[in-house]
Amino acid sequence: MNTIRVGVNGYGVIGKRVADAVLLQSDMDLVGVADIATDWRIKSAANRLPVFASTIEAQQAMRGADVPAQGVLDDLLAQCDVVVDTTPKDVAAGNLERYRALGVKAVLQGGESHSTTGHSFVAQANYASAIGRDSTRVVSCNTTSIVRILGALDAAGLLLRARGVLIRRATDPWESHLGGIMNTMVPEPTIPSHQGPDAQTVLPGLDVVTIAAKGAHTQTHSHYWTLQLTREATRDEVLDALRAAPRIAFIRMSDGLVALNSTVELMRDLGRPRGDMWEVAVWEDLVTVNGSEAYLAYQVYNEAIVVPETIDAIRALTGTVPDAATSIRLTDESLGMRQDFLTPAEEPDHDR
Amino acid sequence: MNTIRVGVNGYGVIGKRVADAVLLQSDMDLVGVADIATDWRIKSAANRLPVFASTIEAQQAMRGADVPAQGVLDDLLAQCDVVVDTTPKDVAAGNLERYRALGVKAVLQGGESHSTTGHSFVAQANYASAIGRDSTRVVSCNTTSIVRILGALDAAGLLLRARGVLIRRATDPWESHLGGIMNTMVPEPTIPSHQGPDAQTVLPGLDVVTIAAKGAHTQTHSHYWTLQLTREATRDEVLDALRAAPRIAFIRMSDGLVALNSTVELMRDLGRPRGDMWEVAVWEDLVTVNGSEAYLAYQVYNEAIVVPETIDAIRALTGTVPDAATSIRLTDESLGMRQDFLTPAEEPDHDR
Amino acid sequence: MNTIRVGVNGYGVIGKRVADAVLLQSDMDLVGVADIATDWRIKSAANRLPVFASTIEAQQAMRGADVPAQGVLDDLLAQCDVVVDTTPKDVAAGNLERYRALGVKAVLQGGESHSTTGHSFVAQANYASAIGRDSTRVVSCNTTSIVRILGALDAAGLLLRARGVLIRRATDPWESHLGGIMNTMVPEPTIPSHQGPDAQTVLPGLDVVTIAAKGAHTQTHSHYWTLQLTREATRDEVLDALRAAPRIAFIRMSDGLVALNSTVELMRDLGRPRGDMWEVAVWEDLVTVNGSEAYLAYQVYNEAIVVPETIDAIRALTGTVPDAATSIRLTDESLGMRQDFLTPAEEPDHDR
Amino acid sequence: MNTIRVGVNGYGVIGKRVADAVLLQSDMDLVGVADIATDWRIKSAANRLPVFASTIEAQQAMRGADVPAQGVLDDLLAQCDVVVDTTPKDVAAGNLERYRALGVKAVLQGGESHSTTGHSFVAQANYASAIGRDSTRVVSCNTTSIVRILGALDAAGLLLRARGVLIRRATDPWESHLGGIMNTMVPEPTIPSHQGPDAQTVLPGLDVVTIAAKGAHTQTHSHYWTLQLTREATRDEVLDALRAAPRIAFIRMSDGLVALNSTVELMRDLGRPRGDMWEVAVWEDLVTVNGSEAYLAYQVYNEAIVVPETIDAIRALTGTVPDAATSIRLTDESLGMRQDFLTPAEEPDHDR
């Protein structure tokens, strides 16, 4: 099998992580990354990756800033089977026709609308329907986590209705000097917030309503859910349903993982690149079931959670790996995904 | 009618506000305040209020710090009909027998447990049942807001079930150098959190479950609710039910009041003492009703919201004002309580 | 003597405080305030002050938002002797010709450059030179504090050279949801920062260099100084020099005033409008003198410190009060300015 | 040459980084780490390192928590040539006699006082004097940075007098839920702060005074200096002096590295373990020289900066590497230390 040649347009929070994850896949080659920045972000990248300018103007600016660009976006695209577009909101929508014209398949990100590609992607939920398409949209970090969690309960036949409150981090750490919030919270200006309908682009049958607000921190989102179950269930049934799904890990208050920063520090201790957590981290000891009602709280590392989905989406579009389970396994083994951060990591079983 | 002689034991966040509110009541006299602090907090108070030492040791320390104490707690109590105890959690429980032995009625605060006094108080809900008692407990800021809001909907026959997520401020501004949280959130270690059962100490019939977490800010709590109504209702019915209850004010995103700090600044602009907001501030334009389900978000100024309840509790214990409506009106007029902060303040109608 | 008719153009952080301070002056009338906002800020103002629209467009928008504007800026100016322009940076410069054409004297704020008016103002330093001018600029909060402190030491013949590090609050509380910094510090992009030269527009002889950075808080600036004295001096000499100057107050770590928020809370306890502190708060027990070198730290309440200077500037331009000392006394008594926040406030001596 | 057998007592912020750095040294073996924690911190460590209990009680507790401890501290010490003690402040002082009794050399950390070991260590300044000693103290993060920077200028004959303002991060990220500061700054209660004298324990001749305060962020300290030079010098002379010293790297505002968080993000992009920065990061374009006065600002990654010094201190005590330059080179190559983060990393020259 030939490797999939992948380009990344947009070398920001998501783009740089996707590029690094592509480098870890034995069935993919990273052709390069494109951006318009000329500062430390791209200078640092240029020391280890092929860098392209997303625009002619950016090419000019890169020359002026001594960034060794290897060409412009078209030069990158000419060598790619798939491009992952992680440019800012709404920019990718404008790029899509260009990708199509060049016959390059495209993975867009959650800032774009569902209608742009007509397909929204979370690997465990709808990998199959993306196979062979020319494009798909990996949904946002919040939506990805919702689909993973609610999808897991739905797959187990347990979920009737979900009502969630999402407290988002205000801004990403790298840009926290540019514009954040200070000593306040900022509720979304409408209820319901958009994440519920967004999750329905992947799982149309979900009965889900979300309320969202920004909190005064830069690290990870956290979600708090009240779930109406289809029937009275035990706590173990709920936990088993979550365990049966990929990319969900349990953390525990009783282990001292009592706050968002604790989990972030644990990721650093685990030696993860950039301290990333690709899993949704569910507080196991907060999972509470009372009759047919369940309560859940989990943490979403917004900078990284969509990276494995993006890798799977690349495979799905090309059709080189026909089933979700295999792609998820390949991705997860390459990253070192875990179901529990404190038990010894399992040795990958290369026979299975 | 004789004025009620009131002492305040504990001159902290709540105690100092209660003292100031007592000074505004025409039917009350502030005998003095007692504390163990000897620093700026009590030095500043001593320039304008009679200060007592809560303990013998504190009296000694006050002498050493040139704080002109007028005696110890017993000297204060000897002159009081009612004492408001705002000492730290669990201290008041130990003080209660002393108050009883001296025949001084006592208002405790929400840090104490319900069983300490056997009565938990929110004026609009159960003023009558406090009349003539020797003590009551004004419930905490979060619980007070829950009883006001859910109680209003319950009184209108609209509330079936309430599920709320409470994001608490991490610490009060005055002590934010001593121990807060930084760049994180800290969920309560159990679900449900204690506020639901606490609200049931005032309104036993409520079907309410809360999930709580601390946010990385110092100003005000915010609550996000999903409400199951008893029937399909219109948005106006929900708003009318809230408007019919006291101490609830509407704010609007459309007026630019889009975040916790906006409302805090408005209170400063209104010239309120310490910038206090005694009302629960409901975002009117976030009130959403969908069939028999309603969604709400509101803001709780935790430093001040229990002050009017405490004033009413003083009256209820003494029995000098026999009905809740009259006491609430007296308190609210003295403070300048409002239903809407941006319409011109109503002139008090002294004939009604 | 006729009262001075004052208008305020720009009802923001400074403008609203200036308006309130004008209302307290027995020799001034507030004609009204003008702004372009149509949200809660101006709606709240309109309930208690005459509001004008700064522009025709704003007048239109105010009508649409039910803000009862009494006219446009020209209508306001037609009734004014002096206008205080607190519009955002560089806007006032464009307004100045208009004020001049209408014969209205103008007080600009520190966001403007010195050259716009040709005169920069701090009451204690150069009140006399502003008398009769058509305009002056009250320097910024940081610069005002520098002139007060260094000017006091200079006036006592003690100051040779001053090197300061200024840690600025990142944003004002009211706008902390719009754009602040989070979990970081942001140094000014050049050393020296502009505040040193800015202080020299008022006190040309100062040998002063400043380094500045933004800190991750919203409340007050703090300055840390190393001062080369003209000779070996005692700590008392330095303290006496500071005490001899107006609008400097001492706070003490030993009183528990150990952090920026402590002082802010004290202002709230003192019942000050919006919790304002107009004084520079010098930590008395941090004043350290070692031979001919002194070290100082103080706190600058940036939202309020220029208010008294602005009031004095109004008087100076009109020439109605010929000397600085009298104007400063009138202003300070009206506001309740203090030299020490914890000693009993002095009764104003109306005979002096 | 035999490898040095190293144990680490205290697996906290510093201890865990020292353990990882020891693993990278070809002339050292990590025997194990000891701690009293039983939560996620030690559970995660136990999956990849030999873990010991620092006390008998801790051994008991580890058993109860299923942490597979390999023995107690004495068992660890029995196998060690050198122990690095990173236990909390003042604990190590009590441990030292025990280490001495067992003939294990000890590296203590900056929380301890100089007198405990009688020797304070910064590799570039006084490696030689530590050779053969039974113990030394690696000075604190702030002091290490001061010695590196001022020492570099002193070594070049340029430094007469240094006056610095140190803004410390309030707490480390991992414990930011336990007790930080919020929306304030907290000045040290004395001027000068202790860092100046502490630097003099390593470089006795320095004329240095520091003022310190805590800022409301969790990431890295920043220092702002006014330096009196021994003579008029050029900016290039100052830069050259800094370049000639080890473990100082230049960052530039012009590269977009404009705030503390920018540099932290760059470290994550560089793939460093835990995003660590062992270098002092000096803002090159903020280095300003005016006659015989220079101004500097730099950033100190407090969690990591003392790690290379600790590694060198291990070598110095054992005497296995007789000169500072060789030890520094070994350490720096193993970690990937850099002088500039944006130029391509130099290939280690194994011939030199």
Automatic annotation (TrEMBL), chains A, B, C, D:
Cellular component GO terms held in the UniProt record: cytoplasm
UniProt entry tagged with the keyword Oxidoreductase: yes
Binding site for NAD(+): 35, 302
GO annotation, biological process: glycolytic process; lysine biosynthetic process via diaminopimelate
First-tier enzyme category under EC: oxidoreductase
GO molecular function annotation: 4-hydroxy-tetrahydrodipicolinate reductase; glyceraldehyde-3-phosphate dehydrogenase [NAD(P)+] (phosphorylating) activity; NAD binding; NADP binding
EC numbers for this chain: 1.2.1.59
Keywords: NAD, NADP, Nucleotide-binding, Oxidoreductase
Matches recorded under Gene3D superfamilies: Dihydrodipicolinate Reductase, domain 2 (3.30.360.10), NAD(P)-binding Rossmann-like Domain (3.40.50.720)
HAMAP family: G3P_dehdrog_arch
Protein name (Swiss-Prot/TrEMBL): Glyceraldehyde-3-phosphate dehydrogenase (NAD(P))
